[in-house]
Amino acid sequence: MKKVLLGLAFCLASISSWAQQSLSGKVLDSSTGEALIGASVWAENQGKGGVTDEKGIFTISKLQTGTLELRVSYIGYSTVKQTLELPHSGELTIKLHPTDLMTEEFIVSATRASQSTPTTFQEISKEELGKRNLGQDMPILLNFTPSVVTFSDAGAGIGYTGMRIRGSDQSRINVTVNGIPMNDSESHGVFWVNMPDFASSVDNLQIQRGVGTSTNGAATFGASLNFQTDTRNDDAYAQIDNSAGSFNSFKHTIKVGSGLLNNRFAVDARLSKITSDGYVDRASSDLSSYFVSAGYFGENQVLKLNVFSGKEKTYQSWYGLPESKLEDDRTYNYYTYDNETDNYKQDHYQLIYAGKVGTNWKVNAALHYTYGRGYYEQYREDDPYSDYRLPDVTIGDSIITNTDIIRRLWLDNDFFGGVASLNYISNNGRWDVVLGGGVNRYDGDHFGEIIWARIAGDTEIRDHYYDNTAVKDDRNIYLKATREVLEGLSLYGDLQLRSIDYTFSGINEDGRILDDEQKYNFFNPKVGISYEKSGRVWYASYAVANREPKRADFTDNEITEIPKPERLNNIEAGLRAQSGSFTYNANFYLMDYKDQLIPTGQINNVGAYIRENVADSYRAGIELDAAYQLSKAWTFGGNLALSQNKIKEFTEYVDDYSTPEFTQDSFTYTDTDIALSPNVVASAMIEFMPVKNLSINWLSKYVGKQYLDNSSSDSRSLDAFFTNDIRISYSVQPRFFKSLELNLLVNNIFNEMYEPNGYTFSYFVPGESEKELVTENYYYPMAGTNFMLGLSLRF
């Protein structure tokens, strides 16, 4: 009996092994015969698949004997479906035909740099963004790109986040989505909290450092981010992403797509929800968003409608952490009122057309509309009635001048317009010319209302205590051309005209009457040269950008003393190279500012702090980044930015409360450091793949010392910090899914206590013998060791 059982077991094992088959083959371009690397090969009826290697070869193992329904797809090629019988004999070669449908790359090409454009840039793919996309905002996902410093008010990367590139803050970084401007017309910033989980709908991103190429929207004074949203997916799909981690952080995302219908139409949609308690006390976030895209794809044209929206409710942690709390209470939050929240919703509508005209011309045009509305609510203790233009309250014989108030500060705005470009490429490819531009209008209402007062007096709920409006028209036109004069040698020219009309009227928050109109006309030329040979591109360029003051510069200054526009002269020179498994970039930059606007401590006639022009300031540095694939298992990468960021002469104004009559003292500094601009920023990345489908990444970040203001004072600075993260990814292709991926991200594994952002102010008070200087520093601390764990299922 024992021999019989052993024999049966052996037979069953043999039958089982005979029933499992492997299938290998090659995927080629039908017209050129070249191998297609990374093509997807999927056994639809058995739930297994793989991708082609550098020779276009794929292997799928552990397949069941019988009929196999094979689907092969590759971006830019028509999908092939083939039925086979297993076991399969003979060599399997599958040829894919380039699709006759127009691709969507031209939608953003007019505002992007190409390999021959003489400027400094980096491109990031959907896959690279996806590796870290477990719920944190876009700036945090870009933390390891060159010259970038990121921060988060809540300390965990969810909620209000920001970034600086080369020391330039978000108001100096121009952002476009599909070529459409995203920066707020008045503050010039981008509030990523209004676009939660936007990364899940991004196909690719180009970061241009420095002035870069002409584009739509605000002038680039540090960098530009150019996003392209999801492009056409020829196959129907569904995807579910779920993440959970520290501080009760959760992200839930559902994506679906119809695939190509009738070889012409496609619809894609995403729905997301992100919540977190935050690292800082009460710094919670409740974020939701959706993205819907419907497109028509013809042989010579693409027409797309994108609709996306974000809604956020975040508990305020803007106040920061006082220095006295830094050592023993890092999660301290000044705000305690239970509804001290920021509430905002923003809807975006984009209608985009891209088409070919003959063999040499392409045209792109888009209409857009953004509707934003919301408020932040504040509890104010013992505020004077006069701050709200209200009379004092008399009760009996008592005159009450102050009371507790809950107020809401509202913003209700519309932003709409159109952008367009026309591209000509000569038959021999030596001329590449783009004529483009845009016309946009911003119409915004600002108002504040009192929703509660402990002693209301002569007030009604929703009374407005200030109300003002602003209309801003922004027009630009640019012409840029690249001419290959000799083999590999190209000249580049880029001319942009930009005009702004800005009118505002009403009553400001401080009670002043606003009523003025400002006009600006800017000319922004750019020239450069590049030389390409043997996988290397040398380039050099000179570019000019001009920028108008932002809203606060108008509303906080006296109308007769509005600051001058800023001007930036930018020189870039560098090398981009790839040789086998080694890729590297090196560049030098000089950003020379004229009349840069900075806070000086100076106040206006009603006591509000204002920004002032400084005549001469600059940023100069060297940026290096490289990646090397040592073997199939090991890849090394990193970047290093070394810079000097200086103001030639700066006058600081300090409040003086040491005498009954308020005054300000002034101090002049020369060759002083620009605030929040570290001289060293570096990142390092090591990837180890011990087995197929398992990736282990070690990510390190170093940011040098930063000064909180422009005085170069050590007592008003942020310490240098060095952080390390680990990311582990494992993907499989189980029977019932196209793919299943697990991602574990452990941030700050050595529990570094660090603060990448903050602010400071100083004042004089009476001392024992003479007045005493008091400096108050506030910090935005980041969380210690924390994690996010994600599961992604694709059907």
Automatic annotation (TrEMBL):
Does the keyword Membrane belong to this entry?
yes
Q: Where in the cell is it found?
A: Cell outer membrane
Q: What is its main location?
A: membrane
Sequence ranges assigned to domain TonB-dependent receptor plug in this UniProt record:
115-222
Give the signal sequence positions. 1-19
**UniProt cross-references to PANTHER family, sorted A to Z:** FERRICHROME IRON RECEPTOR-RELATED, FERRICHROME OUTER MEMBRANE TRANSPORTER_PHAGE RECEPTOR
One Gene Ontology term of the molecular function aspect: siderophore uptake transmembrane transporter activity
Q: Topology versus the membrane, per the UniProt entry? A: Multi-pass membrane protein
Report the protein name in the record: Iron complex outermembrane receptor protein
Taken from the UniProt entry, a GO cellular component term is:
cell outer membrane
Presence of keyword Kinase: no
The UniProt keywords, alphabetically, are: Cell outer membrane, Ion transport, Iron, Iron transport, Membrane, Receptor, Signal, TonB box, Transmembrane, Transmembrane beta strand, Transport
Taxonomic source organism: Algoriphagus chordae
Q: Where is the TonB-dependent receptor-like beta-barrel domain?
A: 329-749
Q: Which family does it belong to?
A: Belongs to the TonB-dependent receptor family.
